[in-house]
Every structure is written in structure tokens, then in C-alpha cells.
Amino acid sequence: MSFATRMMSVTLFLQIIAAFLFITATASSPPSGFTVDLIHRRTNSSSPRRSNTDDDQLRSSPYADIFFETSEYLMKLKIGTPPVEIEAVVDTGSEVIWTQCVPCLNCYKQRNPIFDPSKSSTYKEKTCNISDPSCDYTLIYGDQSYSKGRLATETVSIQSTSGHSYEMPETVIGCSHNSSGFITTASGIVGLSWRSLSLIFQMGKSMDGAFSYCFSPERTSKISFGSNPIVAGDGTVSTPMFFRKEKPGFYYLNLDAVSVGKTRIETLGTPFHAVDGNMVIDSGTTLTYLPASYCSLVREAVEKVVTAERVTYSDFDTLCYKTNAMDIFPVITMHFSVGADLVFDRNNTYVALNGEAICLAIMCAPMTPIAEEALFGNRAQNNFLVGYDHSSLKVSFKPTDCGVTQDKPRDSTSAASFLQFNIKFVLFIFVLSLIRL
Ligand SMILES: *[C@@H]1O[C@H](CO)[C@@H](O)[C@H](O)[C@H]1NC(C)=O
Ligand SMILES: *[C@@H]1O[C@H](CO)[C@@H](O)[C@H](O)[C@H]1NC(C)=O
Ligand SMILES: *[C@@H]1O[C@H](CO)[C@@H](O)[C@H](O)[C@H]1NC(C)=O
Ligand SMILES: *[C@@H]1O[C@H](CO)[C@@H](O)[C@H](O)[C@H]1NC(C)=O
């Protein structure tokens, strides 16, 4: 299919999905008692964090190594008994923790071996019945990729600063048997939105819904859980996080304005303007997306500054120039409420393609399949320590060199991979319930 055709089908597809979204939002959430019960049961097990004194808790917090791959940040975690390592996309734009499982009806190619639940003594598939109605799930993401499979409970573990692993027995995970559209070698996705099936939610009260990560463009870095790794110090800015009833679980920030060089473009007076959240911070989406009407203002401001020759790539309406001089591009600043200004490095907001062109990495509709949604993607978050705190309802950013250990340098971006959009913002989640009975 040509890209244009694909986009048309995506658009059509999205209209259908949009029609479903409101119905499924409620249909999909498992009864709250279900999650509470799980957390309650876990608090009686013997995982290390509960035997901790408060003092221990302060010194020890769970974390995972993360690294960049193709267009995503992957974290390492272990599942099953005996534990098997998987690598999964860090995704604040969705909730389910899933991994590809055998038998594979339709699997994409991943680096690690595919998880075999029959070899784990703690794997317990959920069955559909009236008292516990969730079993099968379907997830569809903004770029039309999907994962379908069975919900199960399983032991999930990650590293901990205490040296012991941090174990989460009976964590609800998705065992994916049919997935497609992924441009990654990861085994699956770790959902981190604020909903009952996400990793952070299932960690329970002791974590306060708090976590932080630092995305290094080319080196290994970390994601840490709990309020211990709070983001503070020189250069830190914080902005309120908002939750929307109609799109539950997503972390909305409120973008007041964008500055292109010295030109400040207010959202006020555009349909994009809001006071209670208009942009989802989504670690699973690569580029940044703004709704068309407002985005065109930002783009025009860039066009006014850059005088290099324009180039176009296929059907895409990206703003690209034939140059390799990054410094001719204006610095972009995002102004979040209240007074949280993020001044981006040019590498956050522009991408150099094969040394032959430089493109704006902020995308406008109609290219975006999520035309009404503004997404703050992972590239723009590079080299910021980003902290989410549910108790204060704030997201904080601190400019940081995120690389910890030297790793292989990032390959120069090819036009093909840049133009292949990657949006792990979940559009649709459906947990098959009583309908099945
Ligand atoms: C909780 O832990 C206690 C002490 O270890 C044990 O006797 C009890 O059976 C546990 N309860 C459950 C529901 O596992
Ligand atoms: C996988 O799911 C897709 C989308 O629902 C469906 O069209 C396809 O038939 C499924 N593949 C298999 C092997 O079940
Ligand atoms: C319902 O399913 C759960 C596990 O999925 C099981 O523990 C429970 O016993 C089942 N209840 C009935 C009434 O079958
Ligand atoms: C931006 O990216 C280029 C190419 O990858 C790199 O050489 C440069 O050091 C980066 N600049 C910063 C400030 O990270």
C-alpha cells in the first residue's frame, strides 16, 4: 500500500475506533474490587519491599535499565518462575504490561526468546467467569499496531537498589498471541499510565504512583519507581498533571505556548487552548504531535527563520531542509503551565536524516492519525530527567545528561525510519468480559 492509501485507511479505521472509544472506556475497566484484591493479597506475600522498615524503603527502590532501540526506549524486566528476561517498551501512553507468548498465532520478530508460559510455575491464566470477568484483551495503538491475547497473573520482577530483586507476585500481564505493526525487537510493552493494569498502578500504594526516567539518545539509562528518586535541584521545572474522565489514565499536561526562537505562539485563541490539560506525555511515541490548526502556526514560525532549500519526502508533509547545519534552526521552547518552560536542545525537536537533510520532529495533522491529540513524544524528552508524582499531581523535568554507561552510538537516522511513525498511545483497549459467557 502507498503511504497515502495507508493513511486513508488509518483515518477511516480511526473514525471507527473513535466511535468505539467511549463505549469501551467503561467496558474495559475491570471492576475496581478486582485490583484492590490483588494488591491486598500481595501485601501478605513475602516480597522484600514489605519486610522493609521505612529506613530500608528509603534506601531501596525498584529500577530498571533502559536503552534506546529504533524508535523506543526499552526496559529490562523478568517474568515467571524461573525468571526469564524480557525487554519491553516503556509506555506512559497505555496501561497493560504484555509480552509475546507461545503459541504464536502471529508474532513479530523479537530479540529475546518468546516467553513460554508452560515453563513457568507461577503463570496462571485468567478464565472468564462472573466473579472475575476479565480474560482476553485487545489493544490497538495510535499507529494501528495491535496486541491480542490472554490476561494472566504472573510474577514480575525488576532490580532494586537494595541488591535484591523487587518482586511482584500475581501481577496481571497480557500474554500476547497475535500482535502486529511493531517496529521494535522488544518482547512487548510495559504500560505506565495511571490505570489498574499498569505496572506503576500494580506496584501499589507504597510507590505513590511515582516514577522517573531519563532517556539517553545513545546510552544506557534508568527508570526508577517510588517517590525516592524525586526530581529536584537546579533547573527543575514542574507542571500539573491532569486526568480526563473520557480518556482515563493518560498523563495530560497543559501546554500554554510554544516559542520558536524569540517568537512566542500562544495557544490562547486557538481550539487547542485549555487550562486542564491538552497534551499527553507519551514515552511510547517517538515524535511530538500537535493538532493541525495550532501546529501550523509553530511550523510557519520555523519556516520564517530557516532559509535553506526545502526538500520533501514521499507523501509526507514534513518540514525538511537540505542542509546539515543544525544551528541554522531556531531553538524551540514549550511553555507548560504554571511557568514550566522546557527549552529544548535542537536534537530534541529536529532530526538529521543521513546527513543530507534536517526535519522538524514536531508533526502536524493530517499526517497524524490522532488528529485531535497532542502527544509529547520520547525524542523531545531526551536528556531530561522526567518525574511523575501522583501524590502531588505533578510532572517534573530536569535537564540532565542521561547517559550512564558508554554504549554504541545511535545510527544516523534514515529517512525511512524517521517517516515510519510510531505511536504507542493506546486508542482502544477491550477486555473481553461477560459478553463471552
Ligand atoms: C498471610 O501471612 C500469614 C503469615 O505469614 C499466613 O499465616 C497467612 O496464611 C497469609 N494469608 C494469606 C491469605 O496468604
Ligand atoms: C490476528 O488479529 C487480526 C486482527 O484482529 C486478525 O485479522 C487475524 O486474523 C488474527 N490472526 C490470527 C492468526 O489469529
Ligand atoms: C473465576 O476465575 C478465577 C480465575 O480467573 C478463579 O480463581 C475463580 O475460582 C473462578 N470463579 C468461578 C465461580 O468459577
Ligand atoms: C546532537 O546530535 C548530534 C548527532 O547525533 C551530536 O553530534 C551532538 O553532540 C548532539 N548534541 C547534543 C547537545 O547532544
TrEMBL record:
Active site per UniProt: 91, 282
GO cellular component terms, A-Z: extracellular region
Subcellular localization, as worded in the UniProt entry: Secreted
InterPro entries recorded: Aspartic_peptidase_A1 (IPR001461), Aspartic_peptidase_AS (IPR001969), Pepsin-like_plant (IPR034161), PEPTIDASE_A1 (IPR033121), Peptidase_aspartic_dom_sf (IPR021109), Plant_Aspart_Prot_A1 (IPR051708), TAXi_C (IPR032799), TAXi_N (IPR032861)
Xref: CDD domains: pepsin_A_like_plant
SUPFAM superfamilies: Acid proteases
Peptidase A1 domain: residues covered: 73-398
Gene3D superfamilies xrefs: Acid Proteases
Signal peptide as annotated in the record: 1-28
Any single Pfam family the record assigns to this protein: TAXi_N
Swiss-Prot/TrEMBL keywords: Aspartyl protease, Glycoprotein, Hydrolase, Protease, Secreted, Signal
GO molecular function, one term: aspartic-type endopeptidase activity
A Gene Ontology BP annotation from the UniProt entry: proteolysis
Family indicated by similarity: Belongs to the peptidase A1 family.
Database matches in PANTHER family: OS07G0603500 PROTEIN-RELATED (PTHR47967), PEPTIDASE A1 DOMAIN-CONTAINING PROTEIN (PTHR47967:SF32)
UniProt-recorded name of the protein: Peptidase A1 domain-containing protein
Species annotation: Brassica carinata (Ethiopian mustard)
